[in-house]
Task: structure prediction
Amino acid sequence: MALRVKAEQRDGWTVLRVSGEMDLVTSPAVRQHVHDAVADGRRRVVLDLSDVRFCDSSGVGVLIAARRLMRSCTGRLRLILPAKGAVDGSHVNRVLAALGVRRLFEVFQDLDAAVDETARPLSA
Result:
C-alpha cells in the first residue's frame, strides 16, 4: 500500500493525515511534510496516524526526528493514535510502545482532542 499525506489546517494546527505504510521507501515523505510545515512558519503540527497500517524502524525514526525538529523551533507535535480501531488499535501505537518510545509523544485519540488546548494526552 502506498503512503499518502494530506495536509489541512484546523484551529491553528497543521494536520497531516497519513495513510498507508511508513517504511524505508515511504517515510521520507512524512518527514518532508513536517519540514515544509516548519518552513512555512507552522509551529503546531498534528500527525494523524490513524490510517497507517504498517510502520517499521525508519517510520519510527521519522517520528522521533519530527519531534526533535518541532522542539528545536519551540513548536509542538501531537500524534493521533486511536486505542481502538480496525485491528484492535493503532499499529503505530503498538510499535512505539514496544520500542519504549511512546512516552516521548503527546498522543490523542482523535482530531478533536488533538487540536483542543485543554485536552490531556492519553497515558503511555
Notes: The beta strands are 4-10, 13-22, 44-55, 76-80, 106-108.
